[in-house]
């Protein structure tokens, strides 16, 4: 189904809204085949992520090592202690972190696009990433004093400030003008936060390398500890967003219609924005700024599988995870033993892919 | 008699250089006689000559290495301002001037008659030229010879050519001694860590050259990218299993030797299990100035100790 996401007025749109409302009243269920397909793709990406890397671990060794990890099964993988350490302490945490970060960014992007009824909304364009970036930079510059919990917290505060500023600007300056004004406000807020961040960086150029590498995005240098930091935020945020999938479908029809179905649009908007921002800030603080996932994955899924959130959200989450895991495979192997920043890979790989999807579906746009 | 006198005078005039060196160097007139001088600005073999009209008395250094060199050759009193990164020696007149983002107006406030910088950021040289201030560019040295050349050029530009020559002689000798004291480390591999996210200096850098003098092999040199300061992948570092790890991120980022063993996979690394993770002074290691000898001696000591330990355990 193709819902009108831009809030445009007109007879055709009204008819579409009426159709959508009837369909919503019928309580649609998850399209399990589509979600199942997404899950298979995600698992496949995880397997590729486990098997491929700059260290030659051998396909057989990795597979046997995974089998060995099953409780009650004991096989000898033939891996050396060093290879085992590389697999369990470096490669696997990166793959798992890729799943968390990718799922979170895609879910957050879908949620923002839903609540703002704006196809262009994404953590980047709403000023959230740059706000979170400023918060995390302050944390990095402050050094050890802030600690592993402090950086996500600062990033969250920054991200929330970013989206609040964007929303406030967008709704006062350009009240009633819709999607484009919010995005333009986001660009202004983002530029402002970036400028402050650059200034802070320049004052503390000792940590320049760290901040630079963080800005381009990078998965895990710290093994499982980054996974442990991100996991609770991601699980809670994604769960809250997923629970709201039906409500998002209702909101897509319009605030008045949503209210008539017993949904409080303002409350839902607040809950989802805070949740998605918290999750985004948490992953941004461990993995740096990884662009593109939040906007491209939801749109690609929408074009390929439809715009209804009850299918869109779980699929975006699964495919976002798969996309980032595969992007990281490229990031760590393309120029091995050097690293390519994953943000570079997501844009280089994601943009052409997205254009192909756009071209194929131009008729439905 | 008269003829002889005239001949002697003419000979004297013709050979200014030799006469100056032979004559008493304390006379101010003699020191002035060295100017104007032409000094090479930029890398050896690729730079331009810069003319310095008279002995500079208000020098600005925008490079920590140049600052150390200026004080080494005895031109410290002529320096009026150094950049915010120049933290050695203590008596250097440190200011808020930045070498990364040079501000020409702020530099000219000090009315310099010579500016020394490592990079021509933001057309620094051209802008200072408009104000008729000569600028000496001394970019990061590629090897020790380049570093010696820069020391000599700073000596020539400031009227301390002799001291510079002496300093270079001493440096050569001390470095040779440190190298002679160390065991041959050919085939021993190392990782030089610049930051906690594994940025490193390859063997092609000045730092790498210094390690190379001992025969040490850089694990980053198998990198296909040709990047001088690549960011290495963590799997790669653990698999490369370096014999030695040098931490040049202790001052900046608080990395301690005992932290390193807790990193994912590092327990299995030879350098960690053999106790061969060492903190090096990152300021000394990242500058190509006169204190490079401290760095060479530090590496030499580490290798001597390691040799003793290997002999002890090997029986």
Task: Please describe what this structure looks like.
Chain A has 15 helices and no strands. Chain A is mostly helical. In chain A, helix 4 (81-115) packs antiparallel against helix 14 (309-333). The N and C termini of chain A lie close together (12 Å). In chain B, strand 5, helix 6 (124-130) and strand 6 form a beta-alpha-beta unit. In chain B, helix 7 (144-158) packs antiparallel against helix 8 (161-181). With 315 residues, chain B is an alpha/beta fold. The termini of chain B are far apart. Chain B is elongated, with a radius of gyration of 23 Å. Chain B has a four-stranded parallel sheet, with helices on both faces. A four-stranded parallel sheet of chain B has the order 8-7-9-10. A two-stranded antiparallel sheet of chain B has the order 1-2. The A-B interface holds A 53-56, 81-83, 85-86, 89-91, 93, 143-144, 202, 205-207, 209-210, 213-214, 218, 221-224, 332, 335-339 and B 100-101, 194-199, 219-220, 222-225, 227, 230-241, 252-254, 263-265, 267-269.
Summarize the entry for a quick read:
The complex is a heterodimer of chains A (365) and B (315). Chain A is mainly α and 365 residues long.
Number of helices of chain A: 15
The residue ranges of chain B in which pLDDT falls below 50 over 5 or more consecutive positions are: 1-31
- Helix amount of chain A, in percent? over 70%
Could you give the order of strands across the largest sheet of chain B? Answer: 4-3-5-6
Order of helices and strands of chain A: HHHHHHHHHHHHHHH
What string gives the helices and strands of chain B in order?
HHHEEEHEHEHEHHEHEHEHHHEHH
Largest sheet entry of chain B: 4 strands, parallel
Q: What best-fitting shape of chain A do the alpha-carbon axes yield?
A: globular
Principal-axis shape of chain B equals elongated
Tally of contiguous helical segments of chain B: 15
User: How would you state the average pLDDT of chain B, rounded?
Assistant: 86
Biggest pleated-sheet summary of chain A: none
As a whole number of angstroms, the C-alpha radius of gyration of chain A is 21 Å
């Amino acid at each position: 189904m193709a819902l009108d996401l831009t809030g445009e007025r007109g007879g055709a749109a009204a008819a579409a809204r009426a159709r959508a409302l009837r369909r919503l009243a019928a309580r649609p269920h998850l399209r399990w085949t589509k979600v199942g397909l997404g899950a298979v793709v995600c698992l496949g990406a995880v397997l590729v992520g486990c098997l491929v890397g700059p260290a030659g671990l051998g396909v057989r060794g990795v597979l046997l090592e995974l089998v060995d990890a099953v409780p009650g099964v004991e096989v000898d993988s033939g891996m050396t202690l060093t290879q085992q350490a590389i697999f369990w302490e470096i490669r696997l945490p990166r793959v798992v972190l890729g799943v968390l970060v990718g799922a979170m960014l895609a879910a957050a992007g879908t949620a923002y696009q839903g609540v703002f009824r704006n196809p262009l909304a994404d953590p980047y364009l709403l000023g959230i990433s740059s706000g979170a970036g400023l918060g995390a930079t302050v944390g990095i510059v402050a050094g050890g004093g802030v600690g592993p919990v402090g950086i996500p917290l600062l990033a969250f505060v920054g991200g929330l400030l970013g989206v609040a500023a964007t929303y406030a600007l967008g709704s006062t300056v350009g009240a009633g003008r819709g999607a484009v004004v919010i995005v333009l406000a986001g660009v202004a807020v983002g530029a402002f936060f970036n400028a402050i961040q650059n200034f802070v960086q320049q004052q503390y150029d000792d940590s320049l390398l760290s901040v630079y590498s963080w800005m381009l995005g990078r998965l895990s240098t710290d093994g499982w500890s980054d996974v442990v930091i991100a996991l609770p935020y991601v699980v809670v945020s994604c769960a809250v967003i997923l629970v709201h999938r039906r409500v998002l479908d209702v909101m897509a029809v319009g605030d008045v219609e949503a209210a008539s179905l017993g949904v409080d649009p303002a409350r839902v908007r607040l809950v989802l924005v805070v949740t998605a921002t918290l999750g985004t800030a948490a992953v941004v603080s461990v993995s740096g700024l990884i662009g593109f996932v939040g906007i491209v994955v939801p749109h690609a899924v929408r074009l390929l599988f439809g715009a209804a959130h009850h299918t869109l959200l779980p699929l975006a989450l699964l495919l976002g995870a798969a996309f980032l895991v595969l992007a990281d495979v490229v990031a760590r192997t393309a120029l091995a033993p050097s690293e390519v920043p994953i943000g570079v890979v997501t844009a280089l790989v994601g943009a052409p892919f997205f254009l192909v999807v756009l071209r194929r579906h131009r008729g439905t746009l | 008699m008269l003829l002889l006198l005239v001949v002697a005078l003419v000979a004297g005039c013709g050979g200014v250089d030799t006469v100056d060196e032979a004559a008493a160097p304390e006379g101010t007139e003699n020191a002035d006689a060295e100017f104007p001088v032409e000094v090479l600005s930029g890398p050896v073999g690729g730079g331009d000559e810069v003319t310095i009209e008279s002995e500079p008395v208000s020098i600005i250094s925008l490079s920590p290495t140049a600052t150390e060199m200026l004080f080494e050759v005895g031109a410290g009193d002529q320096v009026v301002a150094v950049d915010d990164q120049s933290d050695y020696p203590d008596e250097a007149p440190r200011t808020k001037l930045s070498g990364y983002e040079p501000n020409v107006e702020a530099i000219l406030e000090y009315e310099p008659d010579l500016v020394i910088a490592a990079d021509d950021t933001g057309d620094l040289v051209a802008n200072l030229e408009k104000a008729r201030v000569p600028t000496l560019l001394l970019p990061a040295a590629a090897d020790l010879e380049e570093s010696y050349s820069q020391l000599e050029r700073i000596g020539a530009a400031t009227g301390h050519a002799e001291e510079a020559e002496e300093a270079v002689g001493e440096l050569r000798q001390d470095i040779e001694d440190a190298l002679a004291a160390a065991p041959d480390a050919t085939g021993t591999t190392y990782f030089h860590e610049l930051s906690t996210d594994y940025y490193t200096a390859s063997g092609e850098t000045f730092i790498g050259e210094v390690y190379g003098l001992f025969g040490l092999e850089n694990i980053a040199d198998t990198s296909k990218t040709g990047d001088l300061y690549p960011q290495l992948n963590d799997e790669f570092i653990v698999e490369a299993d370096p014999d030695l790890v040098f931490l040049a991120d202790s001052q900046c980022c608080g990395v301690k030797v005992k932290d390193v063993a807790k990193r994912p996979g590092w327990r299995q690394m030879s350098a960690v299990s053999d106790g061969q993770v060492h903190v090096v002074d990152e300021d000394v290691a990242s500058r190509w100035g006169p204190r490079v000898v401290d760095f060479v001696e530090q590496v030499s000591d580490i290798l001597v100790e390691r040799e003793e330990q290997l002999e002890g355990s090997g029986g």
